[in-house]
Amino acid sequence: MPTYEYVTVDVFTDRRFGGNPLAVFPDARGLSDAQMQDLAREFNYSETTFVLPPADPRHTAEVRIFTPTTELPFAGHPNVGTGYVLASRAQAVPDHFTFEEKAGLVRVHILRDEAGRPNGARISSPQSLSVGIAVPTDLVAAAASLEDADIATTTHEPLVASVGTKFVIAEVASVDALRRAVPDIGRFRHAVVELDELQGRFALYLYARVEGDATRLRARMFAPLGGVIEDPATGSANATVAALLTSLAPGSDVDLAYDISQGEEIGRPSRLLATARKTAEGPVLSTVAGNCVPVMRGQVEI
Questions:
Q1: Under 8 Å between Cβ of 142 and 184
Q2: What is the CATH number of domain 130-289?
């Protein structure tokens, strides 16, 4: 019976049992799609990753990302955590990895502590910012068990946006209102029926400005239809909001950095550092970075 090694790490934190847990299978050769999905469901983390040989030998690996219910084309904390795990196992730690994923190529820059040991990663989103449909404010408020007035629309209305994975992004009027948010699964189900453009996926990312600072944010992300009631730290969504807010900032040549906290409400405090850049000539590109802490390792027989 084949045996597969796994490693778990907490991502976007510098202490164990904070951040967002991730399971990584460093050598997933021989696993079928169904087995990968079964393993992701068994771990029941927001995501589990499976590392495979790359199609192009110039790249580091193919990385596949599964939630408990489905495969994702791209996600942030799985790439940060997988990059950290592979760097921690390498005899000679490179500065960068390149992962092949369904959304495209993901560039991973390894972060190091003062002694030169890997302690996290910064990833570049595989796609530039794309903005889709507007989503009715009342629908978003109801899905989060909030009042319509709790949703801020001065900077932008609730909308679908992506840098590799689509999210419904909405600003909340205050940190207090953000704390009060509770996902209403019935409303989530209603939304995907009402809005064909969501294509059955409704991952709701809410953020509030901390003390009015546009680059200090507090965030929460709910995706109950995907098996994630609330995510402790969502790298891809935070990279998306960094790109979105930068695209809306005054000026044609803008480079901004965002300090974002997430996970406090569910006891897994996380810190994410996101950047985005726009120019008059090109698309808006973003990165997201954070630290990682190892937690467990073991084997699974399939």
A1: yes
A2: 3.10.310.10
Residue 256: in which H helix or E strand, if any? Answer: strand 254-262
- Averaged in consecutive runs of 10 residues, what is the pLDDT profile of the chain (302 residues)? 96 97 98 98 97 98 96 96 97 93 97 95 97 97 98 98 97 98 97 92 97 96 95 98 97 96 98 96 94 98 92
Catalytic residues: 47
Between CA 221 and CA 82 the distance in angstroms is 21
CATH topology assigned to domain 3-123+291-301: Diaminopimelate Epimerase; Chain A, domain 1 (3.10.310)
In angstroms, rounded to a whole number, what is the distance separating the alpha carbons of residues 21 and 294? 10
Per DSSP, helices labelled H in the chain are 33-43, 76-89, 137-143, 175-180, 185-194, 235-248
- Running DSSP on this structure, what letter comes out for residue 243? H
